[in-house]
Amino acid sequence: MLRPRIIPCLLVHEGGLVKTVQFKDPKYVGDPINAVKIFNEKEADELVVLDIDASANGVEPDFQMIAHLAAECRMPLCYGGGVTTAAQANKIIGLGVEKVAISAAAIDNPTLVSEMAAAIGSQSVVVILDVKKKTGLFKKGYELTSHNAKKSHKVDIFEFAAAMERAGAGEIIINMVDRDGMMDGYDIELAKEFRDILNIPMTILGGAGSHDHIEDVIANCGIIGASAGSLFVFKGPYKAVLINYPEPAKKDVISANAMQRLGANG
Known about the structure:
Protein name: Imidazole glycerol phosphate synthase subunit HisF
CATH class: Alpha Beta
Strand content: 25-35%
Function: IGPS catalyzes the conversion of PRFAR and glutamine to IGP, AICAR and glutamate. The HisF subunit catalyzes the cyclization activity that produces IGP and AICAR from PRFAR using the ammonia provided by the HisH subunit.
Order of helices and strands: EEEHEHHEHEHHEEEHEHEHEHEEH
Keywords: Amino-acid biosynthesis, Histidine biosynthesis, Lyase
Pathway: Amino-acid biosynthesis; L-histidine biosynthesis; L-histidine from 5-phospho-alpha-D-ribose 1-diphosphate: step 5/9
Number of strands: 14
Subunit structure: Heterodimer of HisH and HisF.
CATH topology: TIM Barrel
């Protein structure tokens, strides 16, 4: 039976585990391998690891790091960062990773999605959309960004998401730049708009600060992935670093409550 997925997202910067706020000011919070070990013990549904240096610096993936992560990880692992060819994606899958994510490369070369799907299967191809509110007095809506939200692209975010699905992506991750690290909840309305147009698995990332926020996005969007970074690495009002994840019983309660609310809403 399909059920919602609760997914920690780890950001790697200069070899360390970091957390950002609106994609800025990375704060070191620990060692990625140690974090993976803890999430193993806590039986996380999946894990997303994004190397935020690779694409921004135009370098290929750190295959040695990926191999170490995959060897340690006992849950489905999605890796993103620096992937620009189907051959690289195939190599990453060969290291024991279940999914390969691309962002800037999909914008620059949309045919890469189809090439990756042919090489590793659609179920292993993830496209990340870094979505940010447009700024300016007369600007409304959202824009698609890349390179740690430093570069903007003049494409319709919904049309692009649909095009990625048609190209062969098996999952879309909507990464909400403005909500990153804020811990005040997901952009539910934006999530619902994407849910209405996509027919493949979807994950929402950016903004979760409590288990209630996870329940809210599932209650509004149904069987999706609810991903978070700060929620699973910080604890308490002073944001002490503590790797955490809901216990299995609590996770079941979150999912059950959310699906009950979804049903009540029709």
